[in-house]
Write a structure and sequence with these properties.
Structural class: alpha/beta
CATH superfamily: Alpha/Beta hydrolase fold, catalytic domain
Strand content: 15-25%
CATH class: Alpha Beta
Distance between the termini: 34 Å
Order of helices and strands: EEEHEHEHEHEHEH
CATH architecture: 3-Layer(aba) Sandwich
Helix content: 10-25%
Shape: globular
Length: about 280
């Protein structure tokens, strides 16, 4: 059984909707009690993905999986969003485990599922945001940036339309990290390893027309190198996308657990940027 998000009182959780046939292809839809299918409120929607280096999830007793995304979904809920919180396949050495590009394929399927059911849940299709933490931040980039030519699944803006990408410290150059943070997801035994790394690399999809993007990352992050995120932003700007930016959280490493100022700083950066676009509150 895939664990379910627990936002606490005041919210309703539609739990473990299947967006594909695999056990881990499940998504929770979280919204204020009184909203959703039976309500009248139309809310902005955020699709989010958990971290865990594409190898950890609910299956292996690691503090990962969608039920561990409360630091993200609690904040998005507080800022007026409906949350689609997705589980996906990881390369976890179980029978259902899968190396790259499975997680990206799942992320794109999840994005299409949310889009298809957005009217049912009374979500605002003009305010569809994608975010994630660590590996999930990378998946958010891929949902916003992947092109049809990749043949990895549905893509924006033809199959769904992403209004904004909020990348929470996601590895931005998978080819550069193939023997580091991405090594477990793209193992040395994987056929066509180099080609797959390129296929799941956000850098591959740099072009003009990517949705507005903010990277929010610890200034001292070495797990997902800050220089890679800066390079992604610079490359997008060079391609003609001016609505891309990076916010570095002072004193933070990979994630915003410390120092005490990290999450307030990160939250302010994310939602000042989003509300500046008329998304959320």
């Amino acid at each position: 059984m895939v664990p379910v998000s627990n936002p606490g009182p005041g919210y309703t959780v539609g739990a473990n909707f299947p967006y594909g046939p695999e056990t881990s292809q499940r998504i929770d839809v979280i919204y204020p009690t009184g909203a959703g299918p039976k309500g009248t409120q139309v809310l902005p929607v955020v699709l989010m993905f958990h971290g865990g280096a594409w190898i950890h999830s609910y299956t292996n007793n690691y503090p990962s999986g969608k039920d561990h995304m409360s630091t993200f979904f609690d904040r998005f809920l507080a800022h007026g969003f409906m949350v689609c919180n997705a589980e996906y396949r990881v390369n976890d050495n179980t029978a259902a485990g899968a190396p790259a590009p499975a997680a990206v394929q799942d992320a794109l399927l999840a994005a299409k599922w949310c889009w298809d059911y957005m009217d049912y849940f009374h979500g605002d299709k003009t305010k569809y945001v994608v975010t994630g933490a660590s590996a999930g931040g990378h998946l958010a980039l891929m949902v916003g940036m992947t092109t049809p030519a990749a043949m990895l699944g549905p893509t924006s803006p033809t199959d769904f339309t992403i209004a904004a990408i909020v990348d929470g410290y996601g590895p931005a150059d998978i080819e550069a990290e193939i023997n580091a943070v991405a090594a477990g997801w793209i193992p040395a035994t994987l056929p066509n390893r180099a080609a797959i790394a390129k296929e799941v690399n956000p850098m591959t999809y740099v072009q003009k027309g990517v949705p507005p993007l903010i990277v929010v990352q610890g200034a001292n992050d070495t797990t997902a190198p800050v220089a890679d995120s800066q390079k992604l932003v610079a490359n997008l700007m060079a391609a003609g996308d001016m609505d891309v930016t990076i916010h570095l959280v002072a004193g933070a490493g990979h994630g915003f657990a410390t120092p005490a100022t990290a999450w307030p700083d990160a939250e302010s950066a994310m939602f000042t940027w989003l509300t500046g676009k008329g998304i959320g509150k």
